């Protein structure tokens, strides 16, 4: 399937969508005669957001689309010339394309801290310059998909959940947020551009301004029902929810019935949602309108939705906005992009903070399934290792280890781009969402808890541990000379 330029970023800007130092570094590589050097970079994150137990991996297809069209057209080169870049380097960029290889876990996969879930291989120029673009796309979409997954966990499998966050998003990130929300378990979005761009289901009701633009609430409801009688949703809290909004909605619902139509839903957007939903449900049922759904919105997130469920609120659908698209309360996923091989030699970063040391070499991930057919732990291995890994070790405390002999396993990283060409089919977002749902069902509930989730076991193979210790020792010896 052909990948077309994504409209979230004009093709003329792909090569410039980066931090300035990426461009100064690759010019340095070029001027130092290192442009043909090779490198392998890993993408991973260090801690789960929201004090949770997992992350939903999202953004891969958007990333591949951008990399497929990564280039420096004339207007980009003219700008770089103004910024003082050398003529010979700019000449080189005229034909520059990303022609590297990428291995990745599948989009929608459940992933965990410190796992190299994307591996980028190629020359040092192309693997370096795409760092910021990769981090920007994967960190944001994975954060929002994870937030959406937590909201879905709170709401349960039957509730309909919609992304209402466009007006509170940080600019056009609302496009990616809408897509990521569906991957994480949402059903629809109010974002019309995102629905066209990514093939999402759209939804929407009305604003209070519609009602206030008419002489009275009942007239506003009637006019709306005349226009949208097949999918009418009435906002009932403009003046007084229980004394005005719901009674007027019931009256309009009866008028729709007389025309052979049905009121789809009412929406609550303020007040005590648990109390109001229970009262509204009773009023609707007593009027013979048990089919009318109740939608709730207004600063919702997984914690509030869980509280509403515990209070036995009678809410069928949720519209979630600000706290979804901003990743509240975590502003970002702390994903990083670190070099692991340079010119064929394994390399690693040392740090006084041992948790920031990186793992050298070309790596993959084995995911084990236990006897209960649930995820039983992940082992980071060297790419050339076979499947005979029976024990994996805690990367910081090797005396802690897990025996996985006899467990079923799967290799998580697979090629998605070779020579700059996408090698996997583009699939509907809904298919990615279905895969995420399937994988979440295979994750033990202890890892899904909102408070003190059980830590999922991720370790390293014995061979990788030996390589890490050897590279570390060589670096330390070189520093002593």
Q: Into which percent range does the helicity of residues fall?
A: 25-40%
Which residues form runs of ≥5 with pLDDT under 50? 1-5
Strands side by side in the biggest sheet = 13-12-1-5-3-19-20
Q: In percent terms, what proportion of residues is strand? A: 15-25%
How many strands appear in the DSSP assignment? 21
Structural class: alpha/beta
* Discrete helix count: 16
Spatial gap, N to C terminus: 54 Å
Shape: globular
For this entry, what is the oligomeric state of its chains?
A: single chain
Mind describing the biggest β-sheet? 7 strands, antiparallel
- Rg is 26 Å
- Overall mean pLDDT score? 95
Sequence-ordered SSE layout with sheet pairings:
Elements: H1 20-31, E1 38-45, E2 55-56, H2 60-68, H3 74-82, H4 87-93, E3 101-104, E4 110-111, E5 118-123, H5 124-129, H6 131-155, E6 160-163, H7 173-184, E7 188-189, H8 192-198, H9 208-212, H10 217-227, E8 233-235, H11 241-258, E9 265-268, H12 273-286, E10 293-296, H13 302-310, E11 317-320, H14 322-325, E12 335-342, E13 345-346, E14 363-369, E15 375-382, E16 391-393, E17 401-403, E18 408-411, E19 414-418, E20 421-422, H15 429-441, E21 458-460, H16 462-480
């Amino acid at each position: 399937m052909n990948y077309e330029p994504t409209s979230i970023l004009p093709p003329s800007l792909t090569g410039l969508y980066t931090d300035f130092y990426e461009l100064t570094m690759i010019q340095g590589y070029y001027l130092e005669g290192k442009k043909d050097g090779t490198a392998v970079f890993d993408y991973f994150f260090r801690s789960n957001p929201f004090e949770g137990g997992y992350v939903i991996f999202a953004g891969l297809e958007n990333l591949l689309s951008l990399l497929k069209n990564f280039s420096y057209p004339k207007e980009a080169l003219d700008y770089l010339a103004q910024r003082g870049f050398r003529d010979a380097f700019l000449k080189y960029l005229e034909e520059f394309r990303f022609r590297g290889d990428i291995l990745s876990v599948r989009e929608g996969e459940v992933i965990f801290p410190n796992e190299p879930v994307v591996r980028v291989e190629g020359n040092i120029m192309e693997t370096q310059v795409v760092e910021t673009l990769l981090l920007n796309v994967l960190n944001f979409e994975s954060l929002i998909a994870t937030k959406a997954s937590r909201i879905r966990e709170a709401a349960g499998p039957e509730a309909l959940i919609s992304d209402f966050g466009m007006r509170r998003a940080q600019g056009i990130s609302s496009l990616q947020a809408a897509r990521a929300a569906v991957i994480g378990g949402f059903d629809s979005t109010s974002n019309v551009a995102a629905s066209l761009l990514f093939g999402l289901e759209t939804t929407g009701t009305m604003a209070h301004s519609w009602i206030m633009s008419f002489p009275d609430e009942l007239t506003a409801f009637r006019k709306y029902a005349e226009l949208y009688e097949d999918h009418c949703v009435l906002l009932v809290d403009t003046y007084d929810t229980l004394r005005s909004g719901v009674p007027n909605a019931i009256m309009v619902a009866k008028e729709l019935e007389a025309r052979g139509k049905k009121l789809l839903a009412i929406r609550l957007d303020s007040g005590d949602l648990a109390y109001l939903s229970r009262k509204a449900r009773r009023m609707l049922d007593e009027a013979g309108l048990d089919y009318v759904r109740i939608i709730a919105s207004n600063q919702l997130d997984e914690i509030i939705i869980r509280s509403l469920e515990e209070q036995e609120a009678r809410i069928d659908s949720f519209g979630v906005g600000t706290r979804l698209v901003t990743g509240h309360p975590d502003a970002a996923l702390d994903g990083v992009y670190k070099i692991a091989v340079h010119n064929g030699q394994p390399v690693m970063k040392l740090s006084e903070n041992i948790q920031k040391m990186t793992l050298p070499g070309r790596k993959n991930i084995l995911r084990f399934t236990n006897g209960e057919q649930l995820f039983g732990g992940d082992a980071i291995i060297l790419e050339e290792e076979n499947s005979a890994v029976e024990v994996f070790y805690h990367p910081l405390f090797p005396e802690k280890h897990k025996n996985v002999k006899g467990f079923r396993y799967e290799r998580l990283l697979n090629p998605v781009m070779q020579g700059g060409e996408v090698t996997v089919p583009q699939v509907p977002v809904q298919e990615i969402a279905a895969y995420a749902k399937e994988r979440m069902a295979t994750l033990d509930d202890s890892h899904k808890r909102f408070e003190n989730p059980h830590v999922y076991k991720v370790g390293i193979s014995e061979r990788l541990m030996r390589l890490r210790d050897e590279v570390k020792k060589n670096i330390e010896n070189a520093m002593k000379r």
